[in-house]
Amino acid sequence: MDAIVKYILKFLTDFLFGKEPEKKKTTSGYRNVHFAPKAAHQPEPYVPPKKYRDSRWEELDDLFWNMMQKGVILRKRESGCLLSNAEIIYRKNLEDWFGRHCYVSCQVSLGQLIDLPEQGGFSKEEQSRFFSMFSKMAMDFVIVSIKTNKIVCVIELNDSSHKAPKRVERDRKLLALMKKSKIPFMFVDISQIDVEPDIWTERKNTLSACS
């Protein structure tokens, strides 16, 4: 009886004074588990940005061979001719006029005529871009000495297309390049297709200006 009274009194005391009932201690299955330390963050390897966003291949060799293997379509030009009708006539005239001492080459790129040596004052990129601007320009006729295999004169046959603004600017650049490179050079209007050009005087004047 006394035990029951004591239990009731304790219960009322705890209830009135807000004592929280003791919680049973529980044992967790994870208490003694040792977690492995987190691995240090490893930076991603550096990947250089692509130069050409729309190309699957960056290097020129990869571009060439992969396009060949993927079946790129190539065809010769529809005309099948290297020269226009007017240029064919003028080449024949040049061979008649100078064939004893010279031979005539057609559609020669400036990259075959002009060299751009490495030099200070310009970055490699500037030199590369500058050379690419003119290296693929094709000259109509290059007259070469049979005896020395050196250039006697370069000739551009101008038709009406050379009046277009882009061609006018191209011809300005071309004239400046030839003068800078000390290569004898002449523009010949298509109306003068049957008139023998004075290539020897042009060559003499260019060489004398170099000395």
UniProtKB/TrEMBL annotation:
Q: Which protein, by its recorded name, is this?
A: DUF2726 domain-containing protein
Q: Which Pfam families match?
A: DUF2726 (PF10881)
Organism this protein belongs to:
Erwinia plantamica
The UniProt record lists the DUF2726 domain at: 82-193
Superkingdom of the source species: Bacteria
